[in-house]
Design the sequence.
């Protein structure tokens, strides 16, 4: 798959610019120089070795060169390590039991701290939450144009999902007291992975730390907000949610966090995971760089481990209006401090986890069922599409707000837009399929999602932002596959076929 050189416009904030920890892409060619160290603060590394008991030798090698074993995952042959030595990765690669090794954060721990600006932001709160439900709907459901778009309202008359199906939300954490989410949240299987990738089940660790950490709560409402006469309804309002925090207080998702999250999902009987993020600090991780190659291999093994435990992994495609099937010119990586690089990607560069084998990659549409102006796309890079919102496509709803309405921390509701909002619609449909067919494997569920999606044709002269200039070219003609993959997800088919 070739990549045409393209300058990236990172849409980082919902509204004028989007980006939740949404898979924003970018990539590089050649070896990336390490960020200069300014102190002896320990940096973090992933060390890849043999699966199983043989990883003990890898751990010994980490210690032999002055490193600390932070977390060991013999299930996938990965050690998370720390060392104050910026040359640790190069040194440990020469040791026995080590297949690959690399800095997982580009040595940013040894630079002045920074915060991510990539997450989508809340675009206002819903008013009138005390209004009475109409015709059996939730009080705010009239503003949820996204549910009828995927026929979820019709599906709910047949099935609202099973509590036996669990969706793990790998994100910023879920507000455990939110009235739309508390009925479905399993606190016993919730966890934080942001303390160096070490699981921590204390509620204080996995819940949002303040109201600005709203992304995970918003995503969760789209998946499974209860039909309880309060607020909004989710796509699968009876399924179970679990909070898996993989975004730290700085807004970053490092490889060790994602690895922990996928292994947790695999070993705690999750049926579906929702992943509305890309792994930091590289928008794309390139095999031509030994550090990036090692971290990418570790994440790949963790995702494969989850798939091997029959988990359906749903991933958002990203908010940069990039054609992921073509080369991308990235000038914003690494995104966690230090100098960025001017990089041109090739086929050896991949978004994590969005371009890993077997995941369900989801692009976004607005109310008109046309690609949202920010959504990434690409022939062969998108599995399905789903409502992500688009402020430029105006619905005929009480609010006339083209974004996605869902729950936010503190017991409220608000609007966001992004492929981060599209992914949870697909995760909800996956949960409905698994509820209807509990004996189906993850592979069968993914196949059904693709087969039962409604094809959308490519638009002509696509001008997503309305400025009179063609913004993207959709490959696939009447199939629309370049923008929409197999098509728009269909919740009704999920419960009737």
Sequence:
């Amino acid at each position: 798959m070739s990549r045409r050189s393209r300058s990236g416009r990172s849409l980082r904030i919902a509204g004028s610019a989007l980006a939740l920890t949404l898979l924003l892409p970018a990539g590089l060619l050649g070896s990336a120089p390490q960020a200069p160290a300014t102190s002896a603060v320990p940096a973090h590394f992933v060390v890849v070795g043999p699966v199983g008991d043989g990883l003990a030798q890898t751990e010994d090698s980490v210690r032999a060169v002055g490193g600390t074993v932070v977390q060991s995952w013999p299930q996938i042959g990965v050690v998370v390590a720390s060392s104050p030595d910026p040359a640790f990765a190069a040194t440990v690669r020469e040791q026995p039991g080590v297949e690959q090794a690399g800095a997982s954060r580009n040595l940013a721990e040894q630079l002045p701290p920074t915060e991510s600006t990539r997450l989508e932001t809340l675009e206002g709160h819903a008013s009138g939450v005390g209004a009475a439900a109409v015709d059996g709907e939730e009080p705010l459901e009239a503003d949820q144009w996204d549910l009828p778009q995927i026929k979820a309202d019709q599906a709910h008359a047949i099935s609202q999902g099973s509590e036996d199906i669990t969706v793990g939300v790998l994100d910023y954490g879920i507000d455990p007291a939110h009235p739309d989410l508390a009925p479905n949240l399993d606190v016993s299987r919730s966890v934080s992975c942001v303390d160096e990738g070490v699981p921590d089940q204390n509620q204080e660790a996995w819940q949002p730390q303040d109201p600005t950490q709203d992304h995970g709560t918003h995503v969760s409402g789209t998946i499974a907000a209860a039909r309880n006469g309060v607020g909004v309804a989710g796509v699968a309002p009876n399924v179970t949610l679990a909070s898996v925090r993989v975004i730290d207080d700085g807004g970053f998702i490092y490889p060790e966090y994602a690895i922990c999250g996928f292994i947790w999902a695999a070993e705690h009987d999750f049926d579906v995971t929702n992943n509305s993020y890309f792994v930091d600090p590289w928008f794309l991780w390139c095999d031509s760089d030994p550090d990036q190659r090692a971290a990418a291999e570790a994440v790949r093994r963790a995702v494969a481990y989850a798939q091997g435990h029959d988990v359906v992994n749903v991933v958002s495609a990203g908010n940069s209006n990039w054609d992921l099937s073509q080369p991308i010119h990235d000038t914003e990586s690494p995104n966690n401090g230090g100098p960025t690089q001017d990089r041109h990607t090739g086929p050896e560069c991949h978004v994590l986890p969005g371009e890993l084998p077997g995941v369900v990659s989801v692009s976004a549409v607005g109310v008109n069922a046309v690609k949202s102006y920010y959504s990434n796309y690409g022939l062969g890079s998108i599995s399905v599409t789903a409502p992500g919102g688009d402020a430029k496509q105006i619905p005929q709803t009480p609010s006339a707000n083209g974004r996605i309405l869902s729950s936010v921390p503190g017991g409220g509701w608000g609007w966001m837009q992004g492929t981060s909002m599209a992914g949870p619609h697909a995760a909800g449909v996956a949960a409905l399929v698994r509820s209807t067919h509990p004996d189906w494997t993850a592979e069968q569920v993914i196949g059904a999602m693709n087969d039962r999606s409604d094809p959308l044709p490519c638009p002509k002269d696509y001008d997503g932002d309305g400025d009179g200039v063609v913004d993207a070219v959709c490959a696939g003609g009447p199939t629309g596959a370049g923008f929409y993959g197999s098509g728009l997800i269909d919740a009704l088919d999920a419960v009737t076929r």
